[in-house]
Amino acid sequence: MSAPELALAAVDLGASGGRVMVARVGPERLELQEAHRFAEPAGAPARRAALGSPR
């Protein structure tokens, strides 16, 4: 019996835009793919990190 394959998603929120990445990991597989890229709208208000930032 082989180990199951996992699909993991990561979101990168940058100052000028961001992207969603998908990693597929298995016993003999490691694949990283960009699933979506988006731009930060011009003139958008600054945002804070959602985790660990004071309000």
Characterise the protein shown here.
The chain has 55 residues and is mainly β. It has a domain at 6-39. It is built from no helices and three strands. It has strands at 6-13, 17-26, 29-39. Strands 1-2-3 form a three-stranded antiparallel beta sheet, with no helix packed on it. A hairpin with a 3-residue loop joins β1 (6-13) and β2.
Sheet-strand content, in percent, reads: over 45%
Strand ordering within the main sheet: 1-2-3
- Radius of gyration (Å): 16 Å
List the uncertain runs. none
**Mean pLDDT metric:** 82
The number of helical elements comes to: 0
Helix content: under 10%
Largest sheet: 3 strands, antiparallel
Distance between the termini: 49 Å
Secondary structural class: mainly beta
- Please trace the helix and strand order, writing H or E for each element: EEE
Note the overall shape: elongated
